[in-house]
């Protein structure tokens, strides 16, 4: 079936192939980042892309902890926030003293801010993994968030500290006034940070982080101190989170207590988990999706957080590997050429599942409008169709969609499972699944 | 010559419960030493004490003449002692290749390096490939360790243990739960891989013990009641009474 002897040259060839793929992916990513604003050039999309870029760095930094080292942090935003404040303070100092530091270097200062805090608190935090670490991170998050409101001179209280990114020394004639220039600044740091973090996973430290994630007890018996490994991972995560925070400060020209609060910490956990923590590109997908949902849903519905909650619960329950996990599940099937066996069952399931989703949305919107007391009127427009929230017909439609959709969808889901099992067993026979 | 391992008057108690009482053990350099004894005699605790997983309540443990009692497991490992576990204890989500490679990294001096590409370290690659060949798992190198069969996981466990090149190897029931054929294979593997090194082994299978060990120590209720060559142990009346008697019939 497979050869039993793997020669050293095989391994060398494999490794150089991996390197080629590594560089190829990043060249493509660079081209995409440059080309994106040429295709979508509206002000709205530039703002969205900028926010997505920041979210990508932040989520990737979070995944150094969650996916790579197995540390669940509820307070990662403290490093993002500290990075933001470090950047804002330095920008104001540069402007005041006329120091020759151009704007593109400011995110690095954000990173140093995030790293500084990580160096300081990380050693105590990473003594233990698991629940202890999670609880301490929650406590630290609250501590830093509340001190940001108390230490007004540093954090600017409720209103935060604002800055002017265009007042810094210009470089190559770029003022960084227009959003497009800020976008390219963010895109540059996204690329550099993503490459650095991806490379980090391929170093001895990166692999030992994985070992600590899988089995910290065993790591102690192969010469490594898991505490040191967790601490180093924590410092790297803090550094890159600080870069993201510095970019956010440049983008919004302000840093305030919301940067380092629990909501921000929750969002990055959310994005990383939805995207999939087991793969490097997972958090990138998650950051894109969550930022888009945040921007898109808030203008469509007042209860957008409810949808976030539903999506999160759905992913945790049905696809714990996140979107990346769902995608990568199909890889052995593609290799074994059995993907065609499951696609029809997906298509069959799509219709009733969509009906179910529409029903759920109708229920949520109707109930939300009904419960808020009808101040905004009793008509909800969904998919261009007006629904009267007080009419029995609306409730009836919702009930039919939810119940009927669920009953039919369940049957089609079962067919997906069956088709999947058949395809997977063939893939296994062909040697593409362990 | 200094013994590889020397345990002097070690005691271990958890609260009021005394698990190990006045334990004395000496393992010479290059010796294959088996520790046997009934269930609950303290064999695994002895392993845990020597490897640093537990620290003794009193007494002293020396590795190649240096005191190691009270040191953390990774410090003891860096001084050249490596152990396996009774319950398979691998890195389940990582591939077989990565499992072994992680165990090679410290010994090849790469430590916590975050500036080197782990795939571009020729020495690490060569040693990892060698170990995989040794434990007959080269053809499974890209399989996540959690998906291996039980016997393969046991072999990987031994591979991880020896990968760092430690000169004192401690194996905790390496053949537990294996079929007869698998056991024979594992014993041949252990014999070959620990050639020229010091081996301490805990084992229930008496054919393995008497086939492999140069010396045997018998542990009963946290105390070593006899220590000697297989012939001496076989002939020892105290051992017969306490342990082998019930095994033989």
Task: Outline the structure in words.
The complex is a heterodimer of chains A (434) and B (249). Chain A is an all-alpha fold. Chain A has two domains: 14-329, ABC transporter involved in vitamin B12 uptake, BtuC; 336-429. Helices cover 73% and strands 3% of the residues of chain A. In chain A, the strands form two sheets. Chain A has a two-stranded antiparallel ribbon with strand order 1-2. In chain A, a hairpin with a 2-residue loop joins strand 3 and strand 4 (385-388). Chain A starts with 7 loop residues before the first helix and ends in a 5-residue tail after the last helix. Chain B has a domain at 1-73 and 199-249: P-loop containing nucleotide triphosphate hydrolases (Rossmann fold, 3-Layer(aba) Sandwich), CATH 3.40.50. Chain B is built from nine helices and ten strands. In chain B, a hairpin with a 2-residue loop joins strand 4 and strand 5 (66-67). The longest helix of chain B has 14 residues, at 150-163. The chains are: A mainly alpha (434), B alpha/beta (249). The A-B interface holds A 2-6, 8, 11-12, 15, 18-19, 199-200, 202-208, 210-211, 213-215, 217-225, 228-229, 232, 236, 278, 434 and B 51-52, 72-74, 77-78, 82-83, 85, 89-94, 98, 101-103, 105-107, 110-121, 125-126, 129, 132-133, 138-139, 141, 143-144, 147, 160, 163-164.
């Amino acid at each position: 079936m497979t050869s039993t002897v793997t020669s050293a040259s095989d391994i060398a060839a494999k490794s150089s192939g991996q390197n080629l793929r590594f560089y190829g992916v990043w060249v493509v990513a660079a081209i995409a980042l440059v080309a994106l604003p040429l295709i979508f050039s509206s002000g709205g999309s530039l703002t969205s892309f900028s926010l997505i870029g920041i979210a990508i760095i932040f989520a990737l930094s979070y995944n150094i902890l969650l996916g790579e080292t197995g540390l669940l942090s509820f307070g990662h935003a403290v490093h993002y926030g500290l990075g933001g404040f470090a950047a804002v303070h330095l920008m104001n100092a540069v402007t005041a003293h006329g120091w020759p530091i151009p704007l593109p270097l400011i995110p690095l200062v954000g990173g140093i801010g995030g790293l500084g805090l990580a160096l300081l608190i990380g050693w105590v935090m990473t003594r233990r993994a698991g629940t202890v670490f999670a609880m301490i991170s929650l406590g630290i998050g609250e501590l830093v968030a509340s001190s940001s409101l108390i230490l007004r001179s540093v954090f600017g209280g409720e209103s935060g500290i604002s800055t002017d990114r265009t007042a810094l020394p210009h470089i190559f004639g770029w003022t960084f006034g227009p959003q497009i220039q800020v976008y390219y600044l963010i895109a540059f740091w996204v690329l550099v940070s993503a490459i650095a973090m991806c490379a980090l996973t391929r170093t001895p430290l990166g692999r030992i982080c994985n070992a600590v994630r899988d089995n910290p007890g065993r790591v102690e018996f192969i010469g490594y101190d898991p505490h040191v490994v967790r601490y180093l991972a924590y410092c790297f995560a803090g550094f890159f989170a600080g870069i993201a925070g510095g970019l956010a400060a440049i983008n919004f020209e302000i840093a305030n207590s919301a940067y380092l609060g629990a909501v921000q910490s929750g969002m990055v956990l959310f994005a990383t988990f939805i995207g999939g923590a087991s793969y490097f590109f997972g958090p990138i997908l998650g950051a894109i999706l969550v930022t888009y949902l945040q921007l898109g849903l808030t203008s469509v519905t007042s209860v957008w957080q409810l949808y976030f909650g539903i999506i999160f619960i759905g992913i945790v329950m049905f696809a714990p590997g996140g979107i990346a996990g769902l995608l990568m599940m199909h890889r052995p099937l593609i290799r074994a050429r059995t993907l065609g066996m499951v696609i029809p069952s997906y298509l069959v399931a799509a219709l009733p599942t969509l009906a179910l989703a529409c029903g759920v949305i109708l229920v949520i919107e109707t109930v939300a409008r009904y419960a808020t007391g009808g101040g905004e009127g009793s008509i909800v427009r969904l998919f261009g169709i007006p629904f009267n929230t007080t009419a029995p017909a609306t409730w009836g439609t919702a009930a039919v969609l939810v119940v009927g959709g669920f009953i039919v969808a369940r049957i089609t889901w079962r067919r997906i499972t069956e088709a999947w099992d058949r395809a997977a067993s063939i893939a296994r026979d062909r040697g593409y699944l362990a | 010559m200094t013994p590889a391992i020397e345990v002097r008057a070690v005691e271990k108690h958890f609260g009021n419960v005394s698990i190990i009482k006045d334990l004395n053990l000496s393992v010479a350099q290059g010796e294959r030493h088996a520790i046997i004894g009934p269930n609950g005699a303290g064999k695994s605790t002895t392993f845990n004490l020597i490897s640093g997983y537990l620290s003794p309540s009193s007494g002293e443990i020396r590795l190649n003449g240096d005191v190691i009692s009270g040191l953390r497991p990774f410090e003891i490992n860096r001084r050249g002692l490596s152990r396996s576990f009774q319950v398979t204890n691998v890195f389940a989500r990582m591939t077989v290749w990565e499992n072994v490679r992680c165990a090679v990294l410290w010994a090849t001096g790469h430590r916590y390096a975050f500036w080197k590409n782990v795939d571009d370290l020729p020495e690490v690659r060569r040693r990892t490939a060698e170990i995989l060949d040794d434990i007959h798992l080269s053809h499974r190198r890209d399989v996540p360790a959690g998906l291996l069969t039980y016997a393969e996981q046991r072999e990987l466990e031994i591979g991880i243990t020896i990968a760092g090149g430690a000169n004192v190897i401690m194996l905790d029931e390496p053949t537990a739960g294996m079929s007869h054929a698998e056991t024979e294979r594992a014993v041949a593997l252990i014999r070959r891989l620990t050639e020229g090194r010091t081996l301490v082994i805990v084992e229930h299978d008496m054919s393995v013990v008497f086939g492999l060990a140069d010396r045997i120590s018998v542990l009963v209720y946290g105390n070593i009641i006899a220590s000697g060559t297989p012939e001496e142990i076989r002939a020892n009346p105290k051992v017969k009474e306490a342990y082998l008697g019930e095994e033989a019939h």
